[in-house]
Amino acid sequence: MKKILLVEDDPNLGLLLQDYLQLKGKFEVVLCKDGEEGLRAFTKQPFDLLILDVMMPRKDGFTLGKEIRKINEHVPIIFATAKGMIEDKTQAFNLGGDDYITKPFRIEELLLRINALLKRASSADKSEEEKQTNFKIGRYDFDYTTQMISAGDFHQKLSTKEAELLRLLCLRKNEVLTREEALLNIWHDDNYFNGRSMDVFLSKIRKYLKDDQSVEIINVHGRGYKLLIN
Amino acid sequence: MKKILLVEDDPNLGLLLQDYLQLKGKFEVVLCKDGEEGLRAFTKQPFDLLILDVMMPRKDGFTLGKEIRKINEHVPIIFATAKGMIEDKTQAFNLGGDDYITKPFRIEELLLRINALLKRASSADKSEEEKQTNFKIGRYDFDYTTQMISAGDFHQKLSTKEAELLRLLCLRKNEVLTREEALLNIWHDDNYFNGRSMDVFLSKIRKYLKDDQSVEIINVHGRGYKLLIN
DNA sequence: GGCTATATGTTAAAAATTGTTAAATTGAAG
DNA sequence: CTTCAATTTAACAATTTTTAACATATAGCC
To answer: What are A11-65's pLDDT values in tens digits?
Structure first.
């Protein structure tokens, strides 16, 4: 679960935002009521994203942002600022993958920006393997993004689950993909029924690939599956 | 190339301006000879800037400006007005980043103002990802502000909800836009009926985009949608 | 080997989600 | 009050996923 540090001096707004982000956004939200408290919290535990109110007593949001930048170069920051205060100040932060939002804002808009920033941050440290979307399976080409298997004139659209499962098999080509790993990755829950559901998809995928003898998905009893390509 | 709508009833002046702006300013200029024709043109295709003569038969420039503002909140407008007619009337538009110029004017002066307004409009956009209003979708251009899809001669006006949904898809291009996020952002309430309503709009948007095979909105079952552009 | 419990393969039915079209409703504009 | 467009609701179709049912295979054990 992603962790957010929210620094906002207005307790009404602060608690509202905290509640909403925890409920709808499924984030863990730490709320601080001023810049100094915020800085202390930041030095004590790691956060995935910061939301800083600009207008605050004692230590304003921009100052806090600058101090935090010295400690951590990359953590994404969203500045909440009143209209008109924007232009000059934010320039200092434009380079650093940050964002700002002008008060008053719709809370959905804030959520949109949070997700955009988190995505940008996380895609930066994704491994090459996880980014691969095109696979060669015998004489078939499998495009995970479009969820399609092709071989010459032949095209077969895959459902989402089919595509996700086949992708995992491809990533583990010639190795064992354990049932547990597949279930956790795709269904996010390893239980009997999801397991049976997966078996059904395995069966379907095998049908799609049956015309190429050199391709085979074999079962490793009690452990998982291996995609073999000769 | 920036597109300008010029509404001017005097054909001599109109044609002169059109020629000059096309040659010197390298704009594409559509000339209309009265307010009604101008409004029709505006609803049919997107423009980056409008130049409206205030003194016109049938529908004067201010009336036209007000009607256009209802359709599009942001497009910059330059009013061309005779001396003395200015003060009171223009106040209504001062908020909206508009400008006016008094007749007679030097044409270089007009060009100066056009460029100033265009720059302001575009730099306001560029600062944040979420403020982006122009998207390339395969061979289509989608302008969120004018709620219009264009491809060469083809222009399609979108309704508000259609435009908002397409915008979100564009912002999440090649990634999943979850149903929940879209519903919260556009309908501000995630419930069954709004979901079904969204499905209807998805269907409509797909129809608008169907002529470009390289563009596809695929469903990720149980999660949301992905806009794919090859 | 044969027996049994568990795991997997396959197919079909049920349930849930999504796609599409049309009708009903709403709301702004004349 | 009518007209028109946008949106929602309803109805039905198609697709995807889950559940159920039954068949087959594997491993451990006697």
So the answer is: 888 888 888 888 777 799 999 999 999 999 988 888 889 999 888 888 888 888 8
Tell me the average pLDDT across A110-122. 81
Q: Looking at residue B172, what is its pLDDT?
A: 87
Q: How is residue B179 written in tokens?
A: 């149903």
Q: Residue A8 is encoded by which pair of tokens?
A: 């906002």
Name the CA radius of gyration of chain B, rounded: 20
* Closest CB to B228 among A109, A113, A145: A145
pLDDT value, residue B32: 92
Are A186 and A161 in contact by the 8 Å Cβ rule? The answer is yes
Do A159 and B128 count as a contact with CB atoms less than 8 A apart?
no
* B121: Cβ contacts below 8 Å, ≥ 6 apart: B48, B49, B74, B75, B76, B97
At a CB cut-off of 8 Å and minimum separation 6, what does B202 contact? B165, B217, B225
Degrees, nearest 5: CA angle A192-A198-A202: 145
Contacts by A145-148, CB closer than 8 A, 24 or more apart: A145/B174, A145/B226, A145/B228, A146/B216, A146/B218, A146/B228, A147/B218
A·B CB contacts under 8 A: 40
CA of residue A40 relative to chain centroid, distance: 27
Nearest partner of B8 among B117, B103, B108, B114, judged by Cα: B103
